[in-house]
Structures are given as C-alpha cells and as structure tokens.
C-alpha cells in the first residue's frame, strides 16, 4: 500500500507554509517572464502537493494567480472557496466522479482558499499556476481580517486559519 511517507520520500516533498507538503516540479525557464502588477513572473509553474492524516489542512490563503488543481492519488480533498463577493463554495477533488468528486479544480486568482483531507491517510495533487507562483503573490489568512471581510463565515474561517499565521 502506498502511504503518505512514501510520497514524501519518493517525491522529495518538504513542509509547506500553508500546511501539508510540496515540491516545485516545473517553472517555465525557457520562456520570457511576463510582467504583472507585482513584478515579472514565470508564465507557468507547477508543484506536487500532499495533505496527510497528520497534516490534513491547507490553511486559508489567497493567490493572485489562477491555479489548476489535479488529483493524482489517495483520498479526496475538500476545498473551501470564499469568493470576492462573499459567497462560499465547496468542491471535492478526488478519484470518484460518481460521488461528485472532481479530477480537476480551477481556482481563479483573488479567491480565498482552504482545503482539508476529507478522510484517510493522504491525498496527492499537483497544481499548475499561471502566471507562475511567487510567494509575494500569496497572502496567508489572518482570522481577524477574514472575519471582518466575511463575517457570515466566521466558524469556517476559524476552522481553517493557521493559528499563528505570519503577517
């Protein structure tokens, strides 16, 4: 049986600031960088990302770039999305479309996102980010800021905020 430990070792994953484990797998070095309001970025980057039973939460964060998520192995991962207009959406990324699970999930830039391992040992995904990911383009969620912006989702915000997210 393939375990979370197997993927961490085999793929060389490291702990991620959002929770879980990751490793960058691609950046478009062969193309000119593109200008964005925050500076020049790769046209595309990608990572492997793993949630485990001991690190089951991807804490609230906001990315400027659009991100495609692809489920590869393991158990389903539930995504919580807070749209700029305050609506909350959920989606489950997994291998069973008969259960409403998605193999691919697109999250536009500017949408707050949190995820959690729905059940089981681990869920392995990859993400493709365009324009390419840069830490300067990501904001980790602060409970007090998110609650002020989305007061109708207070419980959900507290459930998935990193307790000591750096500013």
Number of domains: 1
Relative helix content? 10-25%
Hey, roughly how much beta strand do the residues contain? 35-45%
Biggest pleated sheet: 6 strands, antiparallel
Mean pLDDT value: 96
Using only C-alpha atoms, the radius of gyration works out to 16 Å
* Count of helix runs: 3
Shape: globular
Distance between the termini: 40 Å
Low-pLDDT residue spans: none
CATH fold naming:
Jelly Rolls
Query: How do the strands line up in the largest sheet?
Result: 1-2-5-12-7-10
> Mind telling me the CATH class?
Mainly Beta
Per CATH, which architecture? Sandwich
**How many E-type strands?**
13
- CATH H-level superfamily: Jelly Rolls
N-to-C order of helices and strands: HEEEEEEEEEEEEEHH
Features:
single chain, 167 residues, mainly beta, Jelly Rolls, six-stranded antiparallel sheet, five-stranded antiparallel sheet, 3 helices, 44% strand, globular, Cupin, RmlC_Cupin_sf, RmlC-like_jellyroll
Q: In short, what is this structure?
A:
This protein is mostly beta strands. It has helices spanning 4-11, 143-149, 154-160; strands at residues 14-15, 21-27, 34-36, 39-41, 45-52, 57-63, 66-74, 77-82, 88-93, 104-107, 112-117, 122-130, 138-140.
């Amino acid at each position: 049986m393939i375990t979370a430990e197997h993927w961490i070792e085999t793929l060389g994953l490291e702990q991620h600031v959002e929770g879980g484990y990751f490793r960058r797998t691609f950046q478009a070095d062969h193309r000119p960088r593109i200008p964005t309001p925050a500076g020049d970025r790769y046209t595309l980057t990608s990572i492997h990302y793993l949630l485990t039973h001991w690190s089951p939460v991807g804490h609230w964060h906001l990315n400027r770039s659009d991100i495609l998520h692809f489920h590869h192995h393991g158990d389903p991962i539930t995504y919580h999305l807070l749209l700029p207009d305050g609506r909350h959406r959920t989606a489950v990324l997994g291998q069973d479309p008969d259960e409403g699970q998605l193999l691919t999930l697109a999250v536009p830039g500017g949408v707050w996102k949190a995820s959690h391992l729905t059940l089981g040992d681990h869920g392995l995904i990859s993400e493709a980010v365009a324009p390419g990911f840069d830490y300067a383009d990501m904001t980790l969620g602060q409970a007090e800021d998110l609650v002020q912006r989305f007061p109708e989702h207070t419980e959900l915000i507290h459930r998935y905020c990193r307790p000591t997210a750096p500013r």
